[in-house]
Write a structure and sequence with these properties.
single chain; alpha/beta; Spore Coat Polysaccharide Biosynthesis Protein SpsA, Chain A; seven-stranded mixed beta sheet; three-stranded mixed beta sheet; 13% strand
Length: 304
């Protein structure tokens, strides 16, 4: 049967379909190539810390069909947080357990005792933040742990939303702001979402939720690290085959921006550089205890 369309003149160029996407870094082809290269990099040998025991997927399968308020404990390390702790305490529901690992020399412990006398444990523990998080883990008895910092507040409905993640082994969300640096925190959250799409958890210790048995099976937080201990532990959990979920609606809000005031670009470059070296196993062991200047000009030196 003859074709209904007119024949194209010899030597004329083939018609091209309209290109819906400009040739920028955001075009689907370039994004696809980037994702393929990045995933290939992630599969390079040696990216896992072979000194640690690999977690077997499903090893700590949850036996509870639902997550209840009494199944959750929030763990927070504190050091001289008298300015931030009242708002933090006010954002935690009374039926959520709280463990405070404190190394304060101010009235932080007294404020906690007055504002939240029930369902609260205060441990006096001077040490690194990673060690404090491990101490809180050892003292907890609930199936779920929420690791956070005293300079944030939980969004309304935070714990109700967390209870919906009963099929996850670990969950993390963004740290946003309702006052200063709103754009910075919003862009950082977008970076977390992109990293999650690449299969790399970009968790913050201000908003990190995990099943206690999974965390303990993975060896807990690396006590050598004085910074980035939050991201590193989530990488190990993810590599162990457990389900790690990023929930953009599971938010906390920053109330203290002291490190951003020292320089937002400096903080961002520090975080990206150090996490890159840690993730790909390029950071020498002797450098793991260095904060690369993260706590410079701060009252905190990585220790509580």
């Amino acid at each position: 049967m003859p074709s209904s369309s007119a024949p194209r003149p010899t030597g004329s160029p083939s018609p091209r379909p309209a290109n819906r996407f400009p040739r920028t870094l955001a075009s689907p082809s370039r994004v696809g190539r980037f994702l393929r290269v990045f995933r290939r990099l992630r599969s390079l040998p040696g990216r896992r810390n072979t000194a640690r025991r690999r977690i077997s997927a499903g090893q700590c399968a949850s036996t509870s069909p639902t997550v209840r308020a009494e199944d959750i404990t929030s763990i927070v390390p504190t050091r001289n947080e008298i300015r931030n702790i009242p708002a933090f305490l006010a954002s935690i529901p009374s039926d959520i357990g709280l463990i405070v690992v404190d190394a304060s020399s101010d009235d932080t412990p007294r404020c906690i005792a007055e504002m939240r006398p029930n369902n609260t444990v205060v441990l006096r523990y001077p040490g690194t933040i990673a060690e404090a998080r491990n101490a809180g883990t050892a003292a907890a008895r609930t199936p779920w742990l929420v690791f956070t910092d005293a300079d944030v507040t939980f969004a309304p409905g935070f714990f109700d939303r967390l209870m919906q993640h009963r099929l996850s082994d670990a969950v993390y969300g963004p740290k946003l702001s309702i006052s200063d640096y709103k754009s910075y925190y919003a862009w950082f959250a977008r970076g977390q979402r992109l990293s999650d799409r690449l299969g790399i958890p970009a968790a913050s210790g201000s908003n990190l939720c995990c099943r206690r048995d999974v965390l303990q099976a993975g060896g807990g937080f690396d006590p050598v690290l004085v910074v980035n201990e939050d991201s590193e532990v989530m990488w190990r959990i993810k590599r162990g085959g457990f389900r790690v979920t990023f929930d953009s609606a599971l938010a906390v809000f920053a109330s203290d921006h002291r490190r951003l005031k020292q320089g937002a670009l400096r903080k961002t470059v520090h975080s990206i550089t150090r996490c890159f070296l840690l993730y790909f196993g390029l950071l020498p062991r002797r450098w793991r205890s260095s904060d690369f200047g993260y706590w410079k000009h701060s009252k905190n030196d990585g220790r509580l």
